[in-house]
Amino acid sequence: YYLKMVSDEVRRLTRLVSSMLTMTRLQSDEQALRPSRFDFAELLLSVVVSMEQKITDKRLDVRGFENLSHTEILADKDLIYQVVYNLVDNAIKYSSGGGFIEFTSHRIGDRLEFSVINSGVGMLPEDLPYVFDRCYKADKSRSGNKDSLGLGLYITKTIVELHEGEISVQSEPDKTTAFTVSLPIKIH
């Protein structure tokens, strides 16, 4: 029992240190993008496959892969992976058991737009303007994740903006939440 408590605390502190290092690196002038060409749909699929156990444990229905647009983009693959990972991880955490996660991806002109949508607790309208703020956490009593650091969406938005992109959120309490990201096909 006590070893599990210590192990959980070590994992929490490791996540905190890792997030703080990532945040510091992104805020410094030292963060240079390392662009490469890659297929966004393949990257999204690899993130989802890496989280298969979490998805299975919550009995989530995964939707939308059959309609994904295979779009090659020029961006920092590791950072875009982090964006997708954070959004999918949040979708799993805040989905209701037996619910769904849905993915969309398509090209609009010279941009890629993708969404991660999940069923679940959703967010209150008054929380939406703040979800991308550093260390902001919505009402803990509504959240299934008491260990959240409140840094994931801040880091996600910072990475998207480094790529000259945009991120937005829409949510209906006790129904769905949708995060939508728009990225240039080629970063400058």
SS-based class: alpha+beta
The neighbouring-strand order within the major sheet is 2-4-5-7-6
Unreliable spans are 140-144
Helix share of residues?
25-40%
Number of helices: 5
3D shape: globular
- Run of helices and strands: HEHHEEHEEHEE
Straight-line N-to-C gap = 52 Å
User: How much of the sequence is in beta strands?
Assistant: 25-35%
Number of strands: 7
Mean pLDDT: 86
For the sheet with most strands, the description reads:
5 strands, mixed
Kindly provide the radius of gyration, computed on alpha-carbon positions and rounded to a whole number of angstroms. 16 Å
Brief sketch in words of this structure:
This protein has 188 residues and is α+β, with helices and mostly antiparallel strands.
Report on this model:
- The chain has 188 residues and is an alpha+beta fold.
- It has 5 helices and 7 strands, in the order H-E-H-H-E-E-H-E-E-H-E-E.
- The strands form 2 sheets. The protein has a 5-stranded mixed sheet, with helices on one face. It has a two-stranded antiparallel sheet with strand order 1-3.
- Strand 4 and strand 5 (111-119) form a beta hairpin.
- Helix 1 runs parallel beside helix 5 (152-162), helix 2 (40-50) crosses helix 4 (77-93) and helix 4 runs antiparallel to helix 5 (152-162).
- The longest helix has 26 residues, at 2-27.
- It is globular, with a radius of gyration of 16 Å.
Task: Give the topology, please.
Blueprint: H1 2-27, E1 35-39, H2 40-50, H3 52-57, E2 61-63, E3 72-76, H4 77-93, E4 100-108, E5 111-119, H5 152-162, E6 166-172, E7 176-184
Parallel strand pairs: 2-4
Antiparallel strand pairs: 1-3, 4-5, 5-7, 6-7
Helix pairs in contact: 1-5, 2-4, 4-5
